[in-house]
Amino acid sequence: LPMTMTGEKQKALLRTLGKTVTIFCRERESYNFIKHHWLHANEQLFLSHDLALDLDYSPFTKTPGEGTLHAFRTDLERTDRGLPPDNTDISLQGTVSTPINNFLRIIAAKREVHTNRLHVAIAAACMGKDVHLYPNSYGKNRWVYEYSLKTYPNVRWKE
Length: 159
Hints:
The protein has helices spanning 8-16, 28-37, 41-44, 100-108, 118-126, 140-147; strands at residues 23-25, 45-47, 68-71, 92-93, 96-97, 112-115, 130-133, 155-157. With 159 residues, the chain is an alpha/beta fold.
């Protein structure tokens, strides 16, 4: 968790999973895909919001922040849209992942966030930031927005 499942590799994986496995999906597209392709879906498949929505962000909500964070992907899920000159892909600092507290501090320091990184958007939304969520290279961001983030008044979907 979390994972979006909608492709041929995932079909092959599902064929190997027995009924001792339980799967929680964070959006309807994966849920419907798994329900259609997994033998044990009726007993072991559940739809739930992304677990990151349940984290305690209160230590990072003390100040409103200033300025705008542009945190667009530069990895395989990037899109063809141009990157802003001040872009910081905060999930990729060099070749290692950013420790979670540093990741959250970077978001907390800003008032507004523009991103196509789902967990940047989720953290920013939970901190009360003005969030502009853009598509990634496949439908994951849109699907999670539709299932979970659409109800947040501070989150806007940007096509």
